[in-house]
Design a protein that fits this description.
Elements: H1 4-14, E1 19-23, H2 36-50, H3 59-67, H4 73-80, H5 84-95, H6 99-103, H7 111-121, E2 125-130, H8 136-143, E3 149-151, H9 154-159, E4 169-172, H10 194-206, E5 208-212, H11 220-228, E6 236-240, H12 246-255, E7 258-261, H13 265-283, H14 287-303, H15 306-331, H16 338-365, H17 371-382, H18 394-399, H19 402-418, H20 422-427, E8 431-433, E9 442-443, H21 444-447, H22 450-453, H23 456-462, H24 472-485, H25 492-516, H26 528-535, H27 543-551, H28 557-560, H29 568-589
Parallel strand pairs: 1-2, 1-5, 2-4, 3-4, 5-6, 6-7
Antiparallel strand pairs: 8-9
Helix pairs in contact: 1-13, 2-3, 2-4, 7-8, 7-13, 10-11, 14-16, 15-16, 15-17, 16-19, 19-24, 19-25, 25-29, 26-29
Amino acid sequence: MIDSLLTLSFNLHSQKGVYALLLGSGISRSSGIPTGWEVTLDLVRKLAHVEGENCEGKEVEWYVKKYGKEPDYSKLLPLISTTSASQQHLLKAYFEPTEEEREEGKKLPTLAHKIIAKLVAKGYIKIIITTNFDRLLESALEAEGVSPVIISSPDAAKGAPPISHSKCTILKVNGDYLDHRIKNSEKDLSKYDRQINRVLDQIFDEYGLIISGWSGDYDIALRNALERSKSRRYPIYWTGITKPSRISQKLIDLHGAHFVQITNADEFFNNLHEKVEALEEFSRPHPISTQAAIITLKKYLSDNKHIQLRDFLRKEAEIAKKGIDKTFQDIAQISPTLESATKAMKQIESSCEKILYLFSNGSCYVKKDQTKAFFGAFSYVVSQSPPTSGHSYVAWNGLKNYPALLLSYVSGISAILSENYSLLATITSKPIYSKHEQDKNVPVQSRVYAHSVMSVDHGRQLLEGMDRRHSPLSDYLFDIVREFVEPFINNDDHYEKAFDEFEYLWCLLHVDSEQENNSPHIWTPWGSFAWRRQERHGEWIPDQIEKILEKSDKNYPLIVEGLFGGSLNRLKKSYEYSQPKLKEISGRLY
């Protein structure tokens, strides 16, 4: 029987972003951070000392006798420190290290925290649920350059962006130590606010789960949320140093969870990370070869070596195409399922990985007279695979355009980030699509867009975690493409804005191409941007397009470099056709 840690490693590697972490106090104990209840008991001892008494070992009994009820953190703290500033100062002593403690390595992120941060930075983990009040996770993530969205109160849950579109979301179900509303008493832990429960229900329904350092014995509301989750779409892996308690075993049995016996959290996460890294190395081009290819590309571009550039890109295109064709040969007789589609898409992404990096960098640095070499490689990679015998599934026919979609998104988003539209203009001005005779003079944007590659219904069925999304393939691409444009983005907001701007621009380019081809029925392709428009509280179009339209200025790079045939009138015509339809679509999604 395969070890549970191995199956978890395979699942985590092949399904990026599908697993959430649920972390309890066990993850922070080795750092010397106390639990909320330990803080409460220490505050009781301090209160007794102020009143000239000693309750060591009998804190609860003393407090109940003195005040007629069990100690409650939120009510106890004001009795000892009367001002907000003094309360924060008092609490910092429990959770923030002194210079001496820092030298001793206490109250600092543990190895487990640091490994988790690495998994987040690489995109394997996007969501962390924690019962802890400390900020060790935040510190570890900051060291990896990740700024997480923190949800530690009902208000924060209500105002937080969709968890699927954040690099990392931390849900602190019991609060943050600097917030007096933290939960630690049995009464506090028995019920969560509706907004917190809403987020928990979504996570438990849509994501797999890795549980570490949490017994389930005391956090009643969190336990109830897990109990009421009916989804079995992804496994639960529950780690423990000792055998599960009776309550834990009940939850494990309820969800058919895999129990993983571990020595400690540090060793577990380190082993998991090592195995995922090993799979990463096995399934992708060697990082050195990819980096060397990027260096070679930049040299050919800077030295203006057209012939070498053309031959170099053609060779990489042939390697990518070989892998793509093999994927479609392998799935020709297989019906599309969640498992088979996931495997096929991962194989295509792996085959295209190096050339996607080359197009990302190329789109940023290329000059107009160098784009022909890129277009030659582009045309070769995206040419349709030869017909296969046997069954012909609609989902597989659409997926044959996935390489074209990947290259278009990577090239286009890089163009927006660098404001270099030369390559995008070339790609969208020349015909490459030849599946049907009537399409022989049609450029890629006319036939290749998210919905043509995978319909919403197919996306919900075949893409993991996307069964309730408005734009499943677009949302999936949001995570995939980021890796290839990472060097050119500043933060999450910068990337999201560029992604949405490209999808909007691709929609206009599609409409423009169809109008130029006098198509009788023109589809208005939309993606994530269509529903994110609502979140921006009003009409939204990319900044550059808005400025061009407002000023009727032909001198913007987007027009000068040849998009829309270098015609401002064509841009306006496409915009005027698309805008009311996009507005209608946005309204329909809400």
